[in-house]
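Hi support team,

I'm filing this because I wasn't sure whether my run with 4'-deoxy-4'-aminopyridoxal-5'-phosphate finished correctly. The job status page said complete, but I'd like someone to confirm that the output block is well-formed before I use it downstream. Pasting the exact inputs I used:
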Amino acid sequence: MLQAFNPKNKDLQIYIGDRLYHRDDAKVSVFDSVVQGGDAVWEGIRVYKEGVFLLDRHIDRLLNSAHSICFINIPTREEVKQALFQTLRANNMFDNTHVRLTLTRGKKITSGMDPRLNQEGPCLIILPEWKPPVYDNENGISIITASIRRNSPMHLDSKIHHNNLLNNILAKIESNVAGADAALMLDAYGFVSELNGTNVFMIKNGQVYTPHADACLPGITRGLVIELARKEGLEMIEKNISLTEMYTSDEVFSTGTMGELTPIMKIDGREIVNKHDHSLLPVLQKAFNQIIPSYCESFKA
Ligand code: PMP
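And here is everything the job wrote out:
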């Protein structure tokens, strides 16, 4: 499922620093810390017709990530919101939009990794694109387990949503080579952590499971799905999950802003076979779709 260029995105207005640029002129300096060391934090955010979905949760994670890696002069929640709304209005984007919002440490006075070389910044980048959810949520996806392990707090804490994405990109390359749609990443102990760009859940005998958020990103969609499962009266358990448990579960699905709730049909060549005559994923997908409007922040006026 390789995304294609959408001609509707050819004249995007992109926010960088303090103003909007046409996509052809939207550039950051070669001295920016994101170029120098992937030294930036980011969020993927979705816009539905009712507004920006779960915006405060995304801004919380962005600001906490920036604080954790010692950014100074971090913009306020309100400044980030106003820049985002300005960008969406300038592009007339009021639905079906994905926003990649990045906050870099800013421009350095000379190349190098030392944050003291940053005497400007941070730099806010808001890239909105017309983009429906990227996965086929009816027919599902097929995944393989990557050999590379997901970073743990031992090395690089996944609770920082940072731009050092090579850990996940290497896993994605493994899935490309194997002809799969995404890669399942294990933690340092061999338990399931998440996919290279989304979180993962399994359902077995009516109970819903997801890995502890130790090595995985504590995804915002993951958090909402946990709440929704409990609201639906389902038993929702966070625990260590082995690959064998995944292979033999009734249903497996991924969650993320990029793809919403996506069924996983095959893992490492093993079909996921539901041994029951009912399916719970559609219940969660329906609950998710129904709750969207009440978690959207409107910005049209
Ligand atoms: N895991 C990883 C590694 C991700 O990059 C993302 C999306 N940024 C997710 C999970 C899903 O997180 P969210 O539900 O907040 O989009």
